[in-house]
Amino acid sequence: MRPTVLATILLLAAAVAPAFAQGRPKPTSPSTAPAEKPGECATAGELPKTWEGQAFAIDGHTLGGTGLKSHLRLWGIRAPELRDPSRAESVAGMRARAILEDLLGKANHTMSCRAIRWDRECRIVAQCAVATARTAIDLGSAMLAIRIV
User: Using an 8 Å Cβ cutoff, are 128 and 72 in contact?
Assistant: First the structure.
């Protein structure tokens, strides 16, 4: 590349960079995350602010809730996938689902969630907890503490 072309590209990049930096969204925490719904999720309805009810583990970070159209996705974690690319169940994925089921079982599968947003698969990303006789257990934190994710 000729030096004048390179210099022109660098000057343009330096001139445009501040405009891009101003338009860049700031990182959000779960309490301030926007509750936006992707266009593909139009049939899912409005994002509920909270949800309480019976739930079951689909995999190590996805839950099905009684009465919910969409599945719940635990905020802040990424557990091993239940199935590998060949669609066979993976040991790590089955272990993650079993641990999440055990956590749900401590509260008779009753939990409460605070919805944050929709994800690209039209699941409700939420912070969820179960209440036991002694304390409330945040499911995402418990999965991290167990080191499954």
Answer: yes
CA distance 79 to 99: 11
Concatenate the DSSP letters of all residues of 92-124 into one string. Answer: HHHHHHHHHHHHHHTTTTEEEEEEEEE-TTS-E
Q: Is 82 exposed, middle or buried (0-12, 13-18, 19+ CB in 10 A)?
A: buried
Tokens 């039209």 identify what position?
Answer: 122
Kindly report the backbone phi and psi dihedral angles of residue 125, in degrees, each rounded to the nearest multiple of 5, phi listed first. Answer: -80, 125
Per this entry, what is the length of the chain? 149
Helix axes 91-105, 139-146, angle to 10 degrees: 130
Tokens of 6: 């390179």
What Rg value do the Cα atoms of the chain yield, rounded?
A: 21
d(CA 92, CA 22): 42
Query: What is the chain's pLDDT, residue by residue, as a tens digit (149 residues)?
Result: 444 544 444 444 444 444 434 444 444 455 444 444 455 676 767 888 999 999 999 999 999 999 888 999 999 999 988 998 899 999 999 999 999 999 999 999 999 999 999 998 999 999 999 998 788 999 999 999 987 55
